[in-house]
Amino acid sequence: MLQRLRPRLRIPARRLVCAASFLIALSLTLLAQEPPPLQVRYTEAREHNLRRSIVLPGSVEARTSSLVASEVAGPVVELKAREGTRVSAGQVLARLRTSNLELQLQAAQASHKEATARLKLAEKTLERTRELFESKILSQQQLDEQLHEYDAWRGRTEQLEAQIARLKHDIDRATIRAPFAGVVVREHTEAGQWVSEGGPVVELLALDDLEIRVEVPERYFRELKVGVSAPVTFEALPGAEFSGRVAAVIPQADAQARTFPVKIGVRNPGQRIGVGMLARVALAVGEPYVATLVPKDAIVTRGDRRFIYLLNDDNTVTEVAVETGTAVGGWLEVNSPVRPGQKVITRGNERLFPGMTVSAQAMGYEFP
Hints:
The protein has helices at residues 2-5, 13-32, 99-134, 140-173; strands at 38-44, 46-62, 65-69, 74-79, 86-87, 92-96, 175-177, 182-187, 194-195, 200-205, 209-217, 229-234, 241-249, 259-267, 278-295, 300-302, 305-311, 317-321, 323-328, 331-335, 343-347, 358-362. The chain is an alpha+beta fold. The strands form five sheets. It has a six-stranded antiparallel β-barrel with strand order 2-11-14-13-12-15. It has a four-stranded antiparallel beta sheet with strand order 3-10-8-5, with no helix packed on it. A hairpin with a 2-residue loop joins strand 16 (300-302) and strand 17. The longest helix has 36 residues, at 99-134.
């Protein structure tokens, strides 16, 4: 009985047909609407004078290194600078015991005090002797003896002053300080160990300014100039490029390899570069030529292909294959039909395909 009384929900067929028609029409409308154009950024290709460059391997060296030695002898009471410690110029590296020097200094100061008193007495006595000599009460010999006494105490006083200055200097030198800012790379002593005069304490390297030694083939020797820019990269620091400059060209070739040593100076901000790192240095050689540059961000790499997208006047894009050449800061030489002034896509280019319509805005890049 209860089942018979339960109402049944029935939807008229006409309503079902209307609902289905509405959903189909909505789907067709949505399919007919085109998606909004992709937002991208572009920059104009530029013209720049370049020189051909060669890329050579090199090794990082410290421009300034020092085996810091003790200027006085004595036992080490404290070694403050350990391996890996970064120190500033004048910072304490180690301290030697100075108790023996301090005792000698106290004795010399006491002797100097006595000698000063005797010198003052000898001076007053000499003045009285001169007066009595002029009055012909004392003889020339007595005056000479008193003058000799005065000179002896004056010499003794000066000798003790020099001894005191030397002892103070030795006490000050017992505190060994860094001659320049750098990093301690090796310890040569330890607390409690005796260090002789001139004995090594620590080895110190300056890392703010480094040099990269490169062996250059002799055919390029005459084309190298001191002060010329030489970009530097490191396998250990992927994506980072450092601005180096030719610091020295050594005019003596290796007898077997026939290469000339060239030193490239490079700043080391943040001390990211370590001594002994392998580097790759780009050296400019040959005559200058005019090249077309695009920002590095414009290059798209897919497998073995490298290409860029050009922005057309109708806001469509064209794919252009390129071969890259010399890098200049954030820009890259391209060998392709691209001309200076053409607009190249630098943001959003990974999602493009030829003929696609985009919405583009200009983007500035610092030009070298």
